[in-house]
């Protein structure tokens, strides 16, 4: 699984009144070797318990879908 590409990306989606929904990436799903299931790896848990799985897009399309969401490396500060 270390070198495998995910089949799906996992998101939690927050509804916002008068704005687009906020999609926060929280993990990924990787297929089993036998093709009969997935391992879902989450880096966070959604507050409402709902996880949305979507087929991964290329990096540019994914950034557009997420709006201003960017990865923040450990120790980095937001500006």
Offer a quick outline of the entry:
The chain is mainly beta.
Order of secondary-structure elements: EEEEH
Strand content: 25-35%
Helix segment tally: 1
The span between the termini is 34 Å
Share of residues in helices: 10-25%
- Record field, number of beta strands: 4
Uncertain runs are: 68-79
Q: Largest beta sheet, briefly?
A: 4 strands, antiparallel
Throw out a few tags for this protein:
79 residues, mainly beta, 4 strands, 4-stranded antiparallel sheet
How are the SSEs placed, and which strands pair?
Elements: E1 8-14, E2 22-31, E3 38-42, E4 52-54, H1 59-66
Antiparallel strand pairs: 1-2, 1-4, 2-3
Explain the overall architecture:
The protein is mainly beta and 79 residues long. The chain has one domain (8-66). It is 10% helix and 32% strand. The protein has one helix at 59-66; strands at 8-14, 22-31, 38-42, 52-54. A 4-stranded antiparallel sheet has the order 3-2-1-4, with no helix packed on it.
């Amino acid at each position: 699984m270390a070198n495998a590409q995910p089949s799906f990306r996992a998101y939690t989606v927050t509804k916002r009144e008068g704005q687009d929904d906020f999609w926060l990436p929280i993990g990924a799903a990787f297929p089993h070797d036998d093709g009969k299931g997935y391992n879902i790896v989450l880096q966070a848990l959604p507050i409402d318990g709902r996880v949305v799985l979507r087929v991964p897009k290329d990096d540019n399309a994914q950034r557009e879908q997420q709006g201003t969401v960017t990865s923040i490396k450990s120790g980095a500060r937001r500006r």
